[in-house]
Write a structure and sequence with these properties.
The longest helix has 37 residues, at 205-241. This protein is 20% helix and 35% strand. The strands form five sheets. A five-stranded mixed beta sheet has the order 2-9-8-4-5, with no helix packed on it. A hairpin with an 8-residue loop joins strand 8 and strand 9 (99-104). By secondary structure, the protein is α+β, with helices and mostly antiparallel strands.
């Protein structure tokens, strides 16, 4: 292997691929389909999807579950035992951050962000049933305590902070409640931008340009007047002597 190839391989390994989920949610009904894809800076080759469940540890897509297609893993029909932790792994051992997927045999799921949300962003949670319309009134809970009931089944958390982290679930009357899903908040990187003072504006023409122009002119006039007076005096003396 050439030096340039080694360098490229090193750079790829040091990058952690991102795992994307389609549809983008962390809870699924039994029988749903899902696609999990690994990609980092448009580089997908060499990454595989792995998971930990109650039945297996660190198995990769294609080993008894899912159908691999390059760096994507397609699961056509989910079962409750597909619930677990999923991540991307490079063939040399580097791994991405993991996500938790939950498959329920119930009739209600909570649609929430799969990945950590950024501090200050708005986050919308939705409560869905498998068969009924998705705009039914729903009650939302955090860490076991009721937050509020929303008439259309959607609740928005405005300008989230670390205090919004926790386990969320929802319930719809006569349909049941969803499993719990964790929401985590990432702190925005600090941007220490130094603000330099604006350049001072030049002084007005009356205080800078005029003295620079008038002083030489005035001096020249004074010198000319003195010379004129001396010449005139000299001529007057000459006429008096003659």
């Amino acid at each position: 292997m050439t030096h340039s190839t080694d360098l490229l391989l090193c750079c790829i390994i040091n990058q952690a691929a991102g795992l994307t989920v389609s549809p983008s949610r962390s809870q699924f009904f039994k029988g749903d389909s899902v696609s999990l894809s690994c990609e980092e800076d448009n580089i997908s080759a060499g990454w595989t999807v792995r998971r930990n469940t109650t039945r297996e540890i660190r198995t990769q897509c294609g080993d008894g579950w899912g159908k691999p297609a390059g760096s994507t893993c397609n699961i056509s029909s989910l079962y409750k035992h597909d619930s677990g932790v999923y991540w991307c792994e490079w063939r040399e051992g580097a791994a991405s951050s993991s996500i938790q997927l939950t498959v329920t045999g119930g009739s209600v799921i909570l649609q929430s962000p799969v990945l950590p949300v950024m501090e200050g962003d708005d986050v919308t949670l939705s409560c869905h049933t498998k068969t009924a319309p998705s705009n039914l009134p729903a009650a939302f809970y955090k860490d076991g305590s009721l937050i509020r009931t929303e008439p259309a089944g959607h609740m928005t958390l405005h300008h989230v902070t670390s205090s919004d982290e926790g386990l969320y679930r929802c319930s719809i009357s006569a349909h049941g409640e969803s499993p719990s899903s964790s929401i985590s908040v990432s702190v925005k990187p600090s941007t220490n931008t130094s603000t330099s003072a604006p350049p001072s504006s030049p002084p007005p023409a009356s205080s800078s340009l005029l003295p620079a122009v008038l002083l030489p002119l005035t001096s020249s006039c004074v010198v000319f007047l003195l010379v004129f007076l001396l010449v005139k005096q000299h001529r007057h003396k000459s006429k008096g002597e003659t």
